[in-house]
Amino acid sequence: MLESVNAGTSEAQLAKLAQLVSLFERGPIAVLTGAGMSTDSGIPDYRGAGSPPRNPMNIAQFTEDPHYRRRFWAGARIGQNRMNTVEPNDGHRALARLEAAGRIEGVITQNVDGLHRRGGSRTVVELHGGGGVMRCIQCGERWTRSEVLGWFDTLNPGYAERNAGAEVAPDGDALVTEVDSVRVPLCPGCGGTLRPDVVYFGETVPVAVFDAAAELVSRSTALLVVGSSLAVNTGMRLVHKTERLGNPLAVINRGPTAIDARPSLAVRIDGGTTETLTALADALGA
Ligand SMILES: [Zn+2]
């Protein structure tokens, strides 16, 4: 914490903040956010420096392996209480302030935590969907996660109480051991398999969603990348789109990113998203 405060107030950082502010002179810009945006809300960024390695959920395993699905729903149910305590941070609120002041066109996010909308942003493109929504693989119908977890409780009476002590990882995934007897909630319409309505590793962003993001970039005069190392391909496609338009890029991120050496990068701030975005909104009078 002390390190970030010092970095945020050093002369070099202030000069960079001034450079970032000047980027807004040509008109509203687009913002692309990644996991680093939500670390101050208590959701760990597994790609950040010093983070433990992690296997992203495998959707093929999810759809083909009944044991994997039982484990998923059990973990989701026990982890629910922790996820319910996650709140937007001042960085999310700073972006909402900038949008309300007409300084940004909107937010494109790689996160599935729904915190931008809850933080007050109105124009939000969720590239990877929303973790709070479940979708039937067969008929496409959607429900909220809490609705489906209610069905889980009906199918598995006493389960949540018996396993309340299970260890919950910071991202809400619970390490449950009682798995074999779990009854998995199914689509009430067609009996199909329900899955999170998110784009998993190895899946592609729906065309309409990418088009909405690209359109937002087209309306903007620059692209500001926040809390992402741009390891995700879709983010790089938006970077290329920005460059084709002849617009500059900017980065706020702790640690290196995939675009650090690009000539189109106008300013790069190596710092925390919460304090930098708050300082930016203050500087722009948002
Ligand atoms: Zn269905």
TrEMBL record:
PROSITE patterns: SIRTUIN (PS50305). It comes from the Bacteria. Zn(2+) binds at C136, C139, C187, C190. Residues 7-286 form the Deacetylase sirtuin-type domain. This is protein acetyllysine N-acetyltransferase. Keywords: Metal-binding, NAD, Transferase, Zinc. The active site is at H128. PANTHER family: NAD-DEPENDENT PROTEIN DEACYLASE SIRTUIN-5, MITOCHONDRIAL-RELATED. Its EC number is 2.3.1.286. GO terms for molecular function: histone deacetylase activity, NAD-dependent; metal ion binding; NAD+ binding. InterPro entries: DHS-like_NAD/FAD-binding_dom, NAD-dep_sirtuin_deacylases, Sirtuin, Sirtuin_cat_small_dom_sf, Ssirtuin_cat_dom.
